[in-house]
Amino acid sequence: MSEEFCTNCKQNLKPKRIDGHYILHEIEHILHFERGILYTVRELLIRPGENIKNFINENRSRLVKPIIFIIVTSLIYTLINHFFHIEQSYIKIDGAKDSQFNAINNWVQSHYGYSNIIMGGFIAFWLKIFFKKYDYNFFEILILLCFVLGMEMLMFSVFAIFEGVTKYHLMQIAAVIVFVYFSWAVGQFFDKNRVISYFKAFISYILGMITFGISIMILGVVMNLITHH
């Protein structure tokens, strides 16, 4: 073993101190066009289903890690929404007027990026049912959704900026585009040659949103009962 490098792994025995150059290098690595987020966004815009399938089945080095991707994109959306305050104009869950439900509802509305991640679990459940003949387990479907929902966050972010600047109500248009993108990406992932794949993807998304909303209502009722007892 030499003074600077380990003879086995060839790594520095003592890492260099973290400084401004290190931080800039890490940011550059994340945003790199060949393997970073910008490259991943481009690939998920052109051939989302095919690229995600390739990531799961063959090459996991081309795209940004899915968990990192959805966390970063959700953070971007949350920051943009916090700056422009546009969420209330297009996200609303109707339900009882009790304080517990309203507290949960307000959290969902003000933390839509994180709520979207949670909703992914419900969507994955329905995708697993509708596409059960395909050999993908629940966790692989979650990876698919990390990429797709992450792209949705970026799409919402772009429209949020334009709405915040122009004051035109654009988020409803963004919601339609997101529905179309989800159906296209997921349908392409499972079987791009069958129209039924895109339809089942769309239905899975709708049912995932509905069951997520129902779970929020049930949680509100349970918390209200606990509070009153």
UniProtKB/TrEMBL annotation:
Report keywords, A-Z: Membrane, Transmembrane, Transmembrane helix
- The residue ranges crossing the membrane are 63-80, 112-131, 138-162, 168-190, 202-226
Cross-referenced Pfam families, in alphabetical order?
A: DUF3667 (PF12412)
* Name of this protein: DUF3667 domain-containing protein
Organism lineage: Bacteria, Pseudomonadati, Bacteroidota, Flavobacteriia, Flavobacteriales
